[in-house]
Design goal:
heterodimer; A: 27 helices; 28 strands; B: eight-stranded mixed beta sheet; four-stranded antiparallel beta sheet; 14 helices; 12 strands; about 20% strand; globular
């Protein structure tokens, strides 16, 4: 029995675990008591981390599409075809895009970025989930200059007050939920903002309900409470915050509920407070303002520059932060630096020996419809991008589609060339957690068939397109990452133990504080809000879809609801005389759809949610927007 | 007294020699230094890896007898027929330096799998596995075996029980399998002396005293659970402190629930038994989509009914807990066995 210390590939908490292998087959998972994050604890996903690689639909040989049919091919034949077809598109001046992935390692993402910017000369570079998290990162950046908070899970556990802007923390990030629970158990005050009385909301001292898109009002209420009560941290405000006067005058003196007043007091008087942010169903612009307002709340109460306090972004995939920091993100260079950053461009240019592609490129959702060639690394755009069907249609008519993946996904089935790569369990590399820990994955088994490590395949692609890429190991790629992104240099030198090295985002010397403000969403004729439930759908992620233990619920839900579904509150269901499973017509100004309704008792009145997995069923009502004002009737 | 007649002793240096001989006959699995300061059960590569002073590994030796993924049947297509053959693992194994609680856990699993209908896949592997336990002279921080009659020293269920006397180990043989492990190594052992026997008794007494006054009060919880006198509201409240990780089940030495899944392709399949958790929402999900235990509180109630109720106590002859304290360490929430038992006894959660 082989027992290999590695990092959990699911959410971004960064737990450590042992993969157990018997005669080359992954057979189990064991917890580690000494891992600094997990400390012996794993969630259901972590406990099943061995399953998808060993039970999944795996790619074993390169595939080439000939006359509409996919056929096995040798690596050299697949590489030849790829090089000649992509070369032809480049020669014809057609656009090419590259998609990295939040489930690929830093090494894979870095090489995907290098391939795009230096070898293929394109700026069409992104990863699909970026659009869901980008607004929150931008909001934090607006205020603090740093795209990530600095709070650690240990800070959350030791906090006196916690503000949680919810998706559904207990389901999305069990390890972070554990920290919150420990804090609450110790007497910390938990304040949740969201549209459902979730498990975390039930544990909270105060639950502030807010329909999707309306959290801004609640955060402004908290800001207003601080200002009105004179509860701001004077030292921090004068030393640290620009724009306090404007913020104070912008807030209308709204009436303070007792709950809001209490929450304000807890946050302002806490020695240590942490602020947890997850994307809700709100629009990108609203999310950005909400994140900025939360950062401002932390700033004026002194919790931005205090040890043990701070903000945490609840990133939805194991290496979402790494994908950003490796620069496979629209508009960003490695280090998540702006494209225009001259010194970063110069550094990369001398490191790669090539001029970087010019232009801004656009994000995945837009360029997937405009490029003629697309190289997808370990992702399935149709299930990850908000406009899933449009992405699917765009890929179907793509002139040349290349997919590098360990698993058979919908994207693989459409690709002209498929390169089989190792899953996280069969490759060495690093993942960057939401805390900024750069931790190692270690191979516990050989990749199946002819599959190769992703970094090897991407290095070969780089050299096919004229870049020097003579790496002998993933560690050599990591060493180069250290040169491209200096904060990653310590990661390459970190010892063999648990935990890895930390990277941090640099803050501005002064924060620009501001309020959120939100636009009214509903109006008389369309009194309900329809939004997506969460933006993190695990059901189609191959690491869940191919795990016999983890996929049961998702599969059952998809099979039971072939027409999709909409979740409705008990209150609204009673108003309509509805029972679970009955159909409703949901209508916005853009269109309407008839869907089965499922009553969810904890949901706030007036809110309707469509699970992300079923978003395409309600596309007519959303019409490309994140949310919509709707009316509902029983049919 | 039986113990005095059978008891022998061996020096620790002699024990390493003995280990070397055992390793020639079987895979010897013992707690060793793992990665990053962890202690883990692992096949020994050399007797020198053995440790005499260690905290019981978090991942239990159950994994040896009941692996997380266990191939049990091979299915091969032959034209229109299928050939179905059982897969047996009959490699000889010795679990060395396992703790008393885990010996009791294995005895529990053995009873369960031997009950009608017997589970040959489990029993054949267990038949070839022997357990040499190291009694606990000092309890771990989170364990409570004294409340579950499964330690710190054993009076039964072990093949061989060792007690660390310092320079020497006190050796008690408890089964035929145990006798077989000594056969061929008698030269390394000598009869235990009366002072050594006395020392062993003292160590057991002092170990028992170190648990202090704080015990688990299983009896009171059992009365309440068995007679349905735990308020629904209390289950609901407690279940909000559970994150459904399933860790409590997976690391529990007495949990054995599983699901079955076929792996393979092209008409060659291997049917595997895989650890499952009654705390997972889909554990009781039926093909129709109906789930009789859709709510977490009902799943939690079920777990503790199986562990602690008189009904199961009568069937199994023991409660479904060996007091190892692993669930305390592994619980993602705060609903480990001692916490829930205390809440049931008091009738309130963390009040």
């Amino acid at each position: 029995m082989l027992s290999v210390a590695t990092t959990c590939p699911y959410c971004a908490c960064g737990c450590g675990l042992y993969l157990l292998a018997n005669r080359g087959e992954l057979v189990g998972v064991a917890p580690s008591e000494n891992h600094p994050v997990s400390q012996g604890r794993l969630c259901a996903r972590g406990w099943s981390a061995h399953e998808a690689p060993s039970w999944g639909g795996r790619l074993r040989t390169p595939l080439i599409r000939k006359n509409g049919r996919s056929e096995s091919a040798s690596w050299s034949a697949a590489m030849d075809m790829l090089a000649s077809e992509i070369g032809r598109l480049m020669h014809e001046g057609k656009a090419i895009g590259v998609l990295g992935s939040p489930r690929a390692t830093n090494e894979e993402n870095y090489l995907a970025g290098k391939l795009a910017r230096a070898a293929l000369g394109t700026s069409h570079l992104d990863f699909c989930l970026h659009s869901s998290f980008r607004p929150l990162m931008a909001g934090l950046e607006d205020v603090t200059g740093a795209y990530c908070g600095a709070a650690s899970l240990a800070d959350v556990e030791a906090a006196d007050a916690i503000l949680l802007m919810e998706g559904d923390l207990a389901r999305a990030h069990p390890r972070a939920a554990y920290s919150v629970m420990r804090a609450v158990d110790r007497g910390a005050r938990l304040i949740t903002i969201g549209c459902a009385s979730t498990q975390m909301a039930r544990l909270s001292a105060v639950y502030l309900p807010a329909a999707p898109g309306c959290s801004g009002d609640v955060i402004d209420g908290l800001l207003g409470g601080v200002v009105a009560g004179g509860l701001e941290d004077r030292g921090s405000v004068s030393a640290w915050c620009d724009g306090y006067e404007a913020l104070a005058s912008a807030l209308s003196p709204a009436e303070q509920t007792e709950q809001l007043r209490q929450a304000v007091e807890w946050i302002a008087r806490a020695n240590r407070a942490t602020f947890l942010l997850a994307p809700s169903g709100a629009s990108g612009e609203q999310l950005r303002r909400d994140a900025a307002a939360v950062a401002s709340l932390a700033g004026i109460t002194g919790h931005l520059d205090r040890q043990g306090s701070g903000i945490m972004l609840l990133l939805g995939r194991s290496n979402l932060r790494g994908a950003c920091e490796m620069g496979v993100a629209a508009g960003r260079l490695p280090g998540y630096l702006p494209l225009a950053d001259r010194s970063a461009r110069d550094r990369l240019c001398s490191l790669w020996g090539k001029e970087l592609a010019a232009g801004t490129g656009g994000d995945a959702e837009s360029f997937i419809e405009s490029v003629s060639g697309l190289i997808v690394v370990a992702d399935d755009p149709a299930s990850a991008l908000p406009a899933g069907r449009r992405a699917q249609a765009a890929m179907e008519k793509m002139e040349f589609l290349v997919v590098l993946d360990a698993f058979v996904t919908a994207a693989v089935e459409m690709a002209h060339v498929v390169l089989p790569i190792a899953s996280y369990a069969e490759t060495d590399g690093t993942l960057t957690s939401l805390e900024g820990r750069v931790q190692r994955c270690r191979a516990a088994a050989d990749p199946p068939g002819e599959a190769r490590a992703g970094w090897q395949a991407l290095a070969e692609l780089c050299s096919r397109f004229g870049l020097s890429a003579p790496y002998r190991s993933s560690s050599e790629v990591l060493a180069e990452i250290g040169a491209a992104v200096p904060v990653y240099a310590p990661a390459g030198q970190a010892g063999e133990g648990w935990g890895g090295a930390f990277v941090g985002a640099v803050r501005k010397p002064k924060a620009n504080v501001c309020a959120s403000g939100s636009q009214p969403i509903t109006y008389a004729e369309y009194p309900h809000v329809l939004a997506h439930e969460g933006v993190i759908d695990w059901g189609k992620d191959p690491l869940v879809a191919f795990s016999p233990t983890l996929n049961r619920e998702h599969r059952s839900r998809a099979r039971l609801n072939p027409q999709g579904l909409v979740e409705i509150s008990k209150h609204d269901a009673d108003q309509l005389g509805l029972r679970s499973g009955w159909h409703v017509r949901v209508e916005s100004t853009f269109g309407d759809v008839v869907l089965p309704a499922v009553i969810r008792p904890e949901l706030s009145a007036g809110v309707l949610l469509v699970p992300y997995a079923f978003r395409d069923h309600a596309a007519a009502v959303f019409a490309g927007r994140d949310m919509a004002a709707v009316k509902v009737e029983r049919v | 007294m039986a113990m005095a007649q059978q008891a022998s002793a061996i020096t620790k240096a002699g024990a390493l020699e003995w280990l070397g001989r055992l390793m020639e006959q079987a895979e010897v699995i013992a707690p060793v230094a793992g990665f990053g300061g962890d202690t883990v059960f692992s096949p020994l590569r050399s007797p020198a890896q053995i440790r005499w002073d260690f905290e019981n590994p978090l991942h239990p030796p159950k994994q040896t007898l009941l692996p997380q993924t266990d191939p049990i049947v091979s299915i091969q297509r032959d034209g229109d027929c299928y050939e179905v053959l059982p897969i047996y693992d009959e490699s000889p194994r010795v679990l060395f330096n396992i703790r008393s609680c885990d010996v009791k856990g294995i005895a529990f699993l053995e009873r369960m799998h031997a009950a009608d209908p017997p589970d040959a896949s489990y029993l054949r592997r267990a038949e070839r596995t022997a357990a040499i336990s190291l009694s606990c002279v000092a309890p771990c921080a989170s364990c409570f075996c004294i409340c579950t009659d499964s330690g710190p020293f054993l009076r039964e269920s072990y093949d061989i029980q060792l007690t660390d006397l310092g320079e020497d180990l006190f050796v008690e043989v408890g089964s035929k399998k145990g006798e077989a492990l000594l056969a061929g190594s008698q030269d390394l052992f000598r009869a235990a002396t009366e002072p050594e026997l006395e020392r062993r008794r003292e160590l057991e007494e002092s170990a028992r005293r170190r648990f202090g006054e704080e015990t688990c009060h299983f009896a009171s919880a059992m009365r309440r659970i068995s007679t349905g006198r735990v308020a629904e509201a209390l289950w609901a409240k407690m279940s909000d402190w559970c994150l459904e990780c399933g860790g409590c089940n997976l690391i529990c030495p007495t949990c054995y629930c599983f699901s079955v899944k076929d792996r393979g392709s092209d008409g060659r399949l291997v049917r595997c038994r895989m650890w499952d958790s009654c705390q997972y929402p889909a554990f009781t999900l039926e093909a129709s989509g109906h789930n009789p235990r859709e709510q977490r509180k009902d799943r939690m109630k079920r777990r503790f009914f199986h562990k602690v109720s008189a009904q199961y106590y009568m069937r199994d002859g023991a409660i479904g807990c060996v007091g190892c304290g692993r669930c305390v360490k592994v619980c993602m929430g705060t609903t480990d066995m001692p916490a829930v038992v205390a809440a049931i006894r008091k009738g309130s959660w963390r009040g």
